[in-house]
Amino acid sequence: MVTARILAEPGGRDDPIVAELRDSPVRGPSWLPGPALGSFLAGASVLRREAFLECGGFNRRLWLGGEEELLAVDLATAGWELCYLEELTVHHQASRLRDPHARRRVGLRNTLWFTWLRRPLGAALRRTAHLARTVPHDRVSALAALDALRGLP
How far apart are CA 71 and CA 45, in angstroms? Predict the structure, then answer.
């Protein structure tokens, strides 16, 4: 899987995430065409169909907002490589209709679900406690936590 350089439009400037991708601390094999990654951005990546299907694709429950994180771990666990490729470029213009509160709510819910689904119990508890300390203490965060709890099996 390769993730492209993201140019934010209008203006064509590097999206702030580009520096993080370019300077990724993840270790990978030397034959990768760019820095190894631990996750990816769905709208800026190219992934082998075989890998996507082998790992079950995107979890339908996550919908949009961090859905890549779960698939990225499953890809890496199955032996697939993820990397950043500077020469591949996408242009992104964020929707003006996007509801930032709804996006944050779903994103936080998905972060909690990912944490509980793929991390060992101790690490999941530490990450959950960290999130509880660091996310804004507001209605959106409270609703996200409630959504996450309601979604438990």
Answer: 13
Give the max Cα distance, the chain: 47
Neighbour count for residue 87 (Cβ, 10 Å)? 9
pLDDT in tens, 78-116: 999 999 999 999 999 888 888 889 999 999 999 999 999
Per-residue model confidence (pLDDT) at position 21 = 97
User: Do the beta carbons of residue 112 and residue 119 sit within 8 Å?
Assistant: no
Question: Residue 4's closest CA among 88, 67, 69?
Answer: 88
Rounded to whole angstroms, the Cα distance separating 31 from 139 reads: 47
**CA 113 → CA 62, 66, 127, 133, distances in Å?**
8, 10, 11, 17
pTM of the model: 0.83
- Report CA Rg, the chain: 16
Residue 67 has pLDDT above 90, yes or no: no
